[in-house]
């Protein structure tokens, strides 16, 4: 049996944490559940990360990086409307294939709001920095047009909400969205 390096184990913790936090949220997920999913002890988990907050922020950062990479690859060599449609199609396909990314995003927003209410502004600053990089990626791909970027991100948030609530693709709520968004998004019936 090949032993994993600390970096490989850390990566497996981030993947497991993403799945657990996506399902249970920050407050509803225990480090014990993450350790169990990875197959390590809690003390080993805390040798890799100083605490639950650090694990959550690493998972949030990974989620943002994955979506940024997906948008960057989808828009590569494209401009304007072509870039917009390529990114939109890639996103809906991605959240259909990896619903934990959709749910992790939703949990990130909730966790920031809760942390801010508790006076923890570092938490929100970290998540907002990832979201700002996401915004900038889309903004550049759309020719630095603020209106286009705002519209794209607004539709993305609508897709997040509708998909997270499990509206099936044929539901009337999807009518204002492109046919590819309807067909690609996951249904949670």
From TrEMBL:
Q: HTH tetR-type domain: from which residue to which, for each copy?
A: 7-67
Q: Does the keyword Manganese apply?
A: no
Q: Does the keyword Cell inner membrane apply?
A: no
What positions does the DNA-binding region cover?
30-49
Keywords for this protein: DNA-binding
- InterPro entries, sorted: Homeodomain-like_sf, HTH-type_TetR-like_transc_reg, HTH_TetR
PROSITE patterns for the chain: HTH_TETR_2
The organism's superkingdom is given as Bacteria
| GO molecular function list | DNA-binding transcription factor activity; transcription cis-regulatory region binding
PANTHER family, per database record: HTH-TYPE TRANSCRIPTIONAL DUAL REGULATOR CECR, HTH-TYPE TRANSCRIPTIONAL REGULATOR RUTR
Please identify the protein, giving its name as recorded.
TetR-family transcriptional regulator
